[in-house]
Automatic annotation (TrEMBL):
Zn(2+) binds at C77, H80, C149. Belongs to the GTP cyclohydrolase I family. GO terms for molecular function: GTP binding; GTP cyclohydrolase I activity; zinc ion binding. It comes from Brevibacillus fulvus. Keywords: GTP-binding, Hydrolase, Metal-binding, Nucleotide-binding, One-carbon metabolism, Zinc. Residues 8-185 form the GTP cyclohydrolase I domain. It comes from the Bacteria. This is GTP cyclohydrolase 1. Pathway: Cofactor biosynthesis; 7,8-dihydroneopterin triphosphate biosynthesis; 7,8-dihydroneopterin triphosphate from GTP: step 1/1. CDD domains: GTP_cyclohydro1. One of its GO terms (cellular component) is cytoplasm.
Length: 187
């Protein structure tokens, strides 16, 4: 899928007109082009399959928790097309020595976030991709974010954070293992 810049530019121009602005005034002349470019970048995850990051697997005798925490991300709320942003924490326990490069966990988060999105979907999509491709003992994904749709409109509560989790495999049954990951995230 390629982004139709002209269509976005036309839509932005119409929005500016609809709110009573003059899209031909100096400060707004290039705004439709800038917005089209920004949307192409913000939604570039639409063309990428997050599972591709888990194709290259390394063999390592390690069957303990692997955690990459504080992965910054931004996304766009699919309900209001305004940003939400925060941190993701991704943990898994390898099975049979199947590990993946650490950067691939961050790349998966980034790819999934760069779509019109819900936080809950980011969390579960990343967890599901890891379970499917790496077949680990278990996965925990925790995402915490501030949503501009709650900050700048509606309830207007800046600083409020939403936390979502997806727990798979051994972490579903083993409360101690789940607690260990949560404690590691808090460090």
């Amino acid at each position: 899928m390629s982004v139709d810049h002209a269509k976005i530019e036309q839509a932005v121009r119409m929005i500016l007109e609809a709110v009573g602005e003059n899209p031909d005034r100096e400060g707004l002349l290039d705004t439709p082009k800038r917005v089209a470019k920004m949307y192409a970048e913000a939604f570039e995850g639409l063309d990428v399959d997050e599972e591709q990051y888990f194709e290259t697997i390394f063999s390592e005798d390690h069957e303990e928790i692997v955690l990459v925490k504080d992965i910054p991300f931004f996304s766009m709320c699919e309900h209001h097309l305004v940003p939400f942003f925060g941190k993701a924490h991704v943990a898994y326990i390898p099975r049979g020595g199947r590990v993946v490069g650490l950067s691939k966990l961050a790349r998966a988060v980034e790819t999934v976030a760069r779509r019109p999105q819900l936080q809950e979907r980011i969390t579960s999509t990343v967890a599901n991709a890891i379970m499917k491709k790496l077949e680990p003992h278990g996965v925990v994904v925790v995402v915490e974010a501030e949503h501009m749709c709650m900050t700048m409109r509606g309830v207007k509560k800046p600083g409020a954070k939403t936390v979502t989790t997806s727990v798979r495999g051994v972490f579903e049954q083993d409360a101690a293992a789940r607690a260990e990951v949560i404690n590691l995230i808090k460090l």
